[in-house]
Target: ZHX1-C8orf76 readthrough
Amino acid sequence: QAALGWYDACLSLVPLSNTAVRRDALEARSRCLSHVGRTDEALQTAHTLGTIATNMDHDCVVHTLVAAIQRQAGHLQGELSALTRLTSLRPLDAWHWRRLAAIYQELSRCARSSVQCNGEQSHSDSDGHSNGGSSCGSGSSRNCDTHRPSDNSDPSTACGFQSCIHSDSHDASTCALPNVGDEECLLIIAEWYVIIRYRLLLQLSSASQSAFILDRNLEAQANITSDLEKSGVGETTLMCMAEVLGEDLVTLGTTGDESQGTDEARSHDDTPNSIGQFEKRWFGRLYGVAHG
Model:
């Protein structure tokens, strides 16, 4: 709280023309607001910071800041929106994909918990009494629900996977994953994709690394391999995904796409469509591979 007061005082003294110092002070003020639980004000300050961004590095700072604020507040969907924009700006940064993998894993868990909760509730209703031991009323289940897109949003944009399925004439009911609902199926495929891409990027960067940085890289790769083995992902599916991802990385390397950034990614508006656009761009072809 004291630091927040200092940064407010700093901003009142810095002239509007000194954008470099104002950017630093605004970022610090936003982080202070987030730390004391004033999330809305923190996001508004981050938006103000975005209005004086003049290059892609500045945009990356804003998206990283928003992701941190949303994570601090426990808003999974908001963090995902910020990270998809950040990853679109820097698609060859392995650590952005690592965080995306963690988010999709959490969303998959939320979807699974929701299905279990609905099943328990239906069983309870059919028996005519409440199941006192049910976890449906737990805080984690309610939190999962609040991170999903609004029921009023357009499903073709709020869920990029679904729009890909419809446009590519895939049938979600034919998901190759047994005993898994449509929503969880899509999230699991996204999780696999992001994890495999994260490993490929680590492998590409390891050739130029040494010492403790290389050790950290190799340790991360070993953990990914272990996680994939535990998940039960079929070897054929992994090979198909890796093949598609390899083509994509070659394309990125030859076109210089990472340095361009899209208008959607450079925008600082937090909308569900940003997630849909990201998933449609990066996961559309992979969903077909998983069905194959």
Summary: DSSP finds 14 helices and no strands in the chain. The radius of gyration is 21 Å. The CA atoms of residues 76 and 192 lie 19 Å apart. Confidence is low (pLDDT under 50) at residues 128-143, 145-176.
